[in-house]
């Protein structure tokens, strides 16, 4: 019974009895899609055409593999807890409390007191 090879870039049907060490030509790397370029991580060749990408000849020879390869693990993206729209809106404050400029009044009072002393000496 013929089996299907699951190595990247092979996909041929083979008989286990005739499976030798150089029967399969495959890519040991993973497919890379960056911007408009497609290629394999094990090869430097890149293309923009998907049919060209599928026709790339493998870079490694080995035995056919009848077991499915594990899918590449993508990094887990951590997200924060989803918030309701009302939680995202800024809170409304009827009266905004701001610090009063007390220092200006103190300096003016001291300055006026200083001036008054100078005039009383005349």
From TrEMBL:
Q: Which domain of life is it from?
A: Eukaryota
One family from Pfam that matches here is CHORD
* Keywords linked to the UniProt accession: Metal-binding, Repeat, Stress response, Zinc
Annotated function: Regulates centrosome duplication, probably by inhibiting the kinase activity of ROCK2. Proposed to act as co-chaperone for HSP90. May play a role in the regulation of NOD1 via a HSP90 chaperone complex. In vitro, has intrinsic chaperone activity. This function may be achieved by inhibiting association of ROCK2 with NPM1. Plays a role in ensuring the localization of the tyrosine kinase receptor EGFR to the plasma membrane, and thus ensures the subsequent regulation of EGFR activity and EGF-induced actin cytoskeleton remodeling. Involved in stress response. Prevents tumorigenesis.
The UniProt entry, under Gene3D superfamilies, shows: 4.10.1130.20
A molecular function (GO) term: metal ion binding
The entry's protein name is: CHORD domain-containing protein
| Domain named CHORD: residues | 5-64
Say if the entry is tagged with keyword Magnesium.
no
